[in-house]
Amino acid sequence: MTTIKTDSSAAEGRALLARLDRLEPGRPHRRLMFQGGLGYTFDSFDGALMGYALSAVIVLWGVTASTAGWLLSSIFFGYLVGALAAGLLADRFGRRRLMMCALLVFCVFSLLMATSSGTAELFVWRALAGVGIGAETTLITPYISEFLPARHRGRFVARTVGFLAFGYVLAGAVAPLVISPHPETGWRVAAVIAAAPVLLLLWWRKNLPESPRYLIARGRTAEAAAIVEKFEREAGAAEETAPAPRGTPSPPAPAAAATARGEGVAGQMAALWKGRMARTTLVLWVLWFILTGVNYGFSSWLPTMLMTAKGFSITKSFLFGLVTALAQIPGYYLAGTLIDRMERKWLIAAYAAGATFSALGVALAGSPAVLLVCAAFLAAFTNGSAAVYYAYTAELYPTAVRATGMGAASAVGRAGAIIAPVAIGYLYGSFGFTNVFLALVGALALGVVTIVVFGEKTAGRSLEQLEGTTA
To answer: Do residues 190 and 50 touch, judged by C-beta distance below 8 A?
Structure first.
């Protein structure tokens, strides 16, 4: 009887996945993209705005370059913990619940950060706020991807990640208005402003559905069926009017959530290193470490280096940052346009190569105009690549450990984001502006080689098909 029931549940799960994968994206998919995208917007808004705020604090409080590196990295310590914990917990308790808790954690500690009276206290509150942000950004992509059909998944995920650009632009516009006129109090006001919109997002997300793929993997087929049926109704499609495209293979049985049910945290992490999955995990970790580290190291230190190395005023450095933030929008848009038209690994390689040459241009720039152009291209390429490697990572792990894999990769990326500002602080203090960016060139070149030689192909295949090739 148990075997018959299990076989029936597996068959029903396969049928639900097939319906989900051939459903044309409609209103419910766009709503998820917008809600997830706003999460990225508020996350990047906080990161960029507080980067400007901390740059002002570093100047006002006379913080040394080496100590400043640790202060600028404080958020990434929290990112690392939040990303890893959220990935492990979301594969055991669900994506939706963890996303809601993450936003609440961020709000509380971001408001407390505004009360800081010294660098140590500021470091602690900023790191704890980072736990919430790290968890939130880790879960959005795997959550969104589990609702999307293969033929549209890359474009929708890339556009969702592209919302990051709006947060950077918004921060670049707010910083000169809030921080520059009165830096002594303006940075505290900025911390409050960063937290306020997230409260609205918490309210809006109260009716978010759980991932059907997660529910099927956990054996909760009836709940998954209700969600799929609701999506079909809201998208204006019925099951019988959405036949599978000719030649489309049936999805395999949903992966059992063995690691989530019985093996605990150690089993979840060990699953990332079994069989062919070991190479996948290693490649992804290298990519996340380099690309995230370079991105955040560059963006967190740029305002401070412009003030101390190039003699820019606070306002001028902030306006320079706004221009580089605006450059991210075409970077994300182009990635979203190309992601379903070419193989993911080649697109990541192209963006990483563009970032390499841009960093070289920043290092050798002989005038503010050249520096601005090269910095804008560097921001466009490093941030635009995130739209691709976020989607790429979520595709390469099976449902039972997808959030764990995404969380681990994101945690490794956050480790890069911790190390990069600290390393830049020491490099900048000892070797100067030019050598900092030459070091970034070497790191980016390694990223290009890694993805070209060892990266796997994923474009156009369903998540279930990819599970079969990476098992």
So the answer is: yes
CB 292 within 8 A of CB 340: no
CATH value of 2-238+262-470 in 3.40.710.10, 3.40.190.10, 1.20.1250.20, 1.10.10.10: 1.20.1250.20
**pLDDT tens by residue, 413-447:** 888 877 887 777 777 767 776 777 788 788 888 98
CA triplet 441, 445, 450: central angle to 5 degrees? 150
Give the whole-angstrom CA distance, residue 40 versus residue 299. Answer: 16
How many CA atoms lie within 13 Å of 364's alpha carbon, on the beta-carbon side?
7
Taking the C-alpha atoms of residue 378 and residue 383, their distance in angstroms, rounded to an integer, is 8
Q: Look-up: residue for tokens 């290193």?
A: 273
Spatial neighbors of 278 by CB under 8 A, at least 6 apart, are 272
Structure tokens at 104: 């609440």
Q: Give me 282's structure tokens.
A: 């290693």
Cα separation, 353 vs 359, in Å, equals 10
DSSP 196-221: HHHHHHHHHGGGPPPPHHHHHHTT-H
Q: Write the CB contacts of 173 (distance below 8 Å, at least 6 apart in sequence).
A: 322
With CA atoms as reference, report the closest residue to 328 among 35, 38, 44: 44
* Residue 251, SS3 per DSSP: coil
Q: How far, in Å, CA of 305 to CA of 442, rounded? A: 20
pTM for this model (two decimals): 0.72
Indicate the SS3 state at residue 354.
Answer: helix
Give dist(CA 65, CA 181) in Å, integer: 24
Tokens of 304: 């401070």
Residue with token string 């597996």: 10
Provide φ and ψ at 431, rounded to 5°: -125, -10
Residue type, position 329, single letter: I
Structure-block tokens of residue 64? 């040394």
What is each CA distance from 30 to 36, 107, 144, 454, in whole angstroms?
Answer: 10, 26, 10, 33
Please give the C-alpha separations between residue 212 and each of 51, 261, 394, in angstroms, as whole numbers: 37, 17, 15
Do the Cβ atoms of 291 and 389 come closer than 8 Å? yes
Q: Quick: pLDDT tens for 53-79.
A: 888 888 888 887 777 778 877 887 888
DSSP assignment, residue 342?
S
